[in-house]
Amino acid sequence: MAQLDLPDEVYNWPVSCFSGHLHCTHYQGNVSTVSEITASVIQGSSIGPAPNVVNTGDLQAVTLGNQMIRFADDTYIIIPAINANSRLSELDNNHHQFNTPSRQQ
Questions:
Q1: pTM > 0.70
Q2: What local confidence, expressed as pLDDT, does residue 31 receive?
Q3: d(Cα 2, Cα 34) in Å, to the nearest integer?
Q4: φ, ψ (nearest 5 deg) of residue 52
Q5: Which of 4, 21, 24, 31 has the greatest number of CB atoms lying within 10 Å of its CB?
Q6: How far apart are CA 31 and CA 12, in angstroms?
Q7: pLDDT tens for residues 51-99?
């Protein structure tokens, strides 16, 4: 979203919505350690799908035969067995696309 030509206050609103969230799991009377959610879009959030479309809209598979599948707030890289050796290049490509300079909050 930092690459869009948006006023800072419009950009910072969803950024603040997705920042500072914690998670723990309760199961059969046990509680896990509380951890920070570091995902850019929180799965299951009502406003999550729209920013996810913006954030992942430019992602493309780099290897012929691999596919990027998007649904709501999930994105999957589908890699057939014949392309199994391409998984690191696909992850590197996505890591590079998501590590662009972002705006200051």
A1: no
A2: 93
A3: 29
A4: -65, -40
A5: 21
A6: 33
A7: 666 666 677 888 999 998 877 667 788 999 999 999 999 888 876 665 6
Q: How far apart are CA 75 and CA 96, in angstroms?
A: 16
Tokens encoding 38 = 């570091």
Amino acid, single-letter form, for residue 85: N
**CB contact at 8 A, 88 and 77:** no
Q: Is the separation of the CB atoms in 33 and 56 below 8 Å?
A: no
pLDDT in tens, 11-24: 777 667 667 778 88
User: Are 102 and 6 contacting, i.e. CB atoms less than 8 angstroms apart?
Assistant: no
Give the list of residues 6+ apart from residue 58 with CB closer than 8 angstroms, or none.
97
Q: How far apart are CA 66 and CA 1, in angstroms?
A: 25
